[in-house]
Please model this.
Amino acid sequence: MSKTLFEKIAAREIPTQIVFEDDLVLAIRDINPQAPTHLLIFPKKPVPRIAEAAPADHQLLGHLLLKAAEVAEKAGLNQSGYRLVINNGPAGGETVPHLHCHILGGRQLIWPPG
Ligand code: AMP
Model:
């Protein structure tokens, strides 16, 4: 099976700005930022999307969220606040079929989202 974009990034086959990495997850700068700080954090394991995560992934998903909060704190977003977003499927705005969580901050984000 061919590698996903984020698997290629994790394998250093596509250059990117890495902000955090451990054996389970990678956090990078989004190439098309929608806020002054726009990071992506994803599991190295290519879970396609949250709807396809399995019960066996529950520890990995907890790790992903805890690391997202850690990365956001290190990016200086704790005091102002930030948003974590997971897009799922076409209507959710998903364009990369490899589960990832957006970390958005550095400006006032509006609700409801567009
Ligand atoms: P989504 O639309 O939720 O699937 O998010 C995919 C995100 O990946 C978008 O915000 C893109 O800007 C971002 N993206 C696509 N290609 C790259 C890349 N090579 N490096 C960093 N971010 C990327």
